[in-house]
Amino acid sequence: MHAHGMNMYVLSQGPGNYDGKTVIRPSNPMRRDVHLIQPFGHAVLQIDSTSAGVWAFHCHVAWHASAGFFSQMVFQPGQIIRDFTIPEKIGQTCREWDEFTRRVVPDQIDSGL
Predict the structure, then answer these.
(1) Domain with 54 in it
(2) 69 and which of 8, 44, 48, 59 could share a cystine (Cβ 3.0–4.6 Å)?
(3) Is residue 26 classed as helix, strand or coil in its secondary structure?
(4) Domain assignment of residue 8, yes or no
(5) Do the domain assignments include residue 102?
(6) d(CA 34, CA 36)
C-alpha cells in the first residue's frame, strides 16, 4: 500500500486479522510511504494528517488498482475549502471529461498508475 503526500507508520502487521492489542515498537514505529501487506494478513498504519488535500491511497500492483484497490483520503477539509480554488482551466477540463464520459465509455484496461 502507498499513501501520497504524508508519512505512514506501521503499528502492527501480521497474518490474519488484527487482534486489537499488538503494536510493534509503539515508541518508535517504522516510517514507510510504501508497505507490503502479506496475503490474508493485516497492517495497522498511523498516517500523519499534516498535509491538507485529497490524497491517493492505493496498491502499487497495477491490476489491483484497476480492480478498485484504490481510494482517496481527505485531510483537513476545512483548510482545503479555505485555501484552495480550482483553476478555471482545470475545472473546464473536468466538466468536459464528465460530459464526454456520459456519452462514451473510455477503453481503458488499467488504472493508469
Answers:
(1) 2-76
(2) 59
(3) coil
(4) yes
(5) no
(6) 7
Adjacent-strand bridge partners of 3: 57
Report how many helices (DSSP H) and strands (DSSP E) the chain contains, helices first.
Answer: 3, 6
Residues counted in the chain:
113
CATH code of 37's domain: 2.60.40.420
**2-3, strands of its sheet edge to edge:** 2-3, 53-58, 70-75
- For residue 83, is it within any domain? no
Number of domains, the chain: 1
Residue 30: inside a domain, yes or no? Answer: yes
Instruction: Spell out the residues 6+ positions from residue 46 whose beta carbon is closer than 8 angstroms to its own.
Output: 8, 9, 11, 29
Rounded to 5 degrees, what are φ and ψ at 33?
Answer: -115, -15
- pLDDT per residue rounded down to tens, the chain (113 residues): 777 888 888 888 899 999 888 787 777 888 877 788 889 999 888 888 888 888 888 887 777 777 777 888 888 888 887 777 888 998 999 899 899 989 998 777 665 56
